[in-house]
Amino acid sequence: IGKSTTSQNTLAALAEMGQKILIVGCDPKADSTRLILHAKAQDTILSLAASAGSVEDLELEDVMKVGYQDIRCVESGGPEPGVGCAGRGVITSINFLEENGAYENIDYVSYDVLGDVVCGGFAMPIRENKAQEIYIVMSGEMMAMYAANNISKGILKYANSGGVRLGGLICNERQTDKELELAEALAKKLGTQLIYFVPRDNVVQHAELRRMTVLEYAPDSKQADHYR
């Protein structure tokens, strides 16, 4: 669907406006920060903790990297497939960041959470009132809409107990039939809004190959303006 690409480009646009941003990657793939850092994948808190012995042996500068437009980046990471609980990484990471003052002097914190949430650990930013607004990146494909609907169910569960709300849907175009109409219809059914329809453009792939956001790679392009 392109959630990490969409979020990194949108956050780059926010940072251009002078906002101080922290990205917390909550996906075991650890690809939430690579376009900002121009890197393959950032070392995750879990892997660094394993090397150091425990999370207590880490310093904030070990896990936090600063990238494009001074955006601060952290990846929580996850265990190797088939071993352990991936959601624990998110819980461990957020606790570590709070204890070490990572949230000081920040305007926006973005938790990049994987869409097929099946495990309570991934829902921690929602459950524990860490996040205030949730934006679901989806496309007009059936399974993407199904996932968006499922995530909304999860948000509903926690909305009453905490202060978290669904901010809206962001449709990342896949050029399927009637995509805009379907996205708008889903938003209406969910009682939310379609925040933006991001058109498909090959410049996104060109920028990704160079591990850059579109805003850095082609700042004058139409696509960069869409993210702004």
TrEMBL record:
Self-association state and partner proteins as the record states: Homodimer.
MF terms (GO), sorted A to Z: 4 iron, 4 sulfur cluster binding; ATP binding; metal ion binding; nitrogenase activity
PTM note: The reversible ADP-ribosylation of Arg inactivates the nitrogenase reductase and regulates nitrogenase activity.
Keyword GTP-binding: no
Sorted UniProt keywords: 4Fe-4S, ADP-ribosylation, ATP-binding, Iron, Iron-sulfur, Metal-binding, Nitrogen fixation, Nucleotide-binding, Oxidoreductase
Protein name: nitrogenase
Gene3D superfamilies found in the cross-reference section: P-loop containing nucleotide triphosphate hydrolases (3.40.50.300)
Main EC class the enzyme belongs to: oxidoreductase
Enzyme nomenclature, EC number: 1.18.6.1
Catalytic activity entry: N2 + 8 reduced [2Fe-2S]-[ferredoxin] + 16 ATP + 16 H2O = H2 + 8 oxidized [2Fe-2S]-[ferredoxin] + 2 NH4(+) + 16 ADP + 16 phosphate + 6 H(+)
Source species: Bradyrhizobium sp. SR106
Alphabetized CDD domains for the sequence: NifH
Stored InterPro entries: NifH/chlL_CS, NifH/frxC, Nitrogenase_Fe_NifH, P-loop_NTPase
Cofactor(s) the record lists: [4Fe-4S] cluster
Pfam families linked to this entry: Fer4_NifH
Similarity comment text for this entry: Belongs to the NifH/BchL/ChlL family.
Record-linked SUPFAM superfamilies: P-loop containing nucleoside triphosphate hydrolases
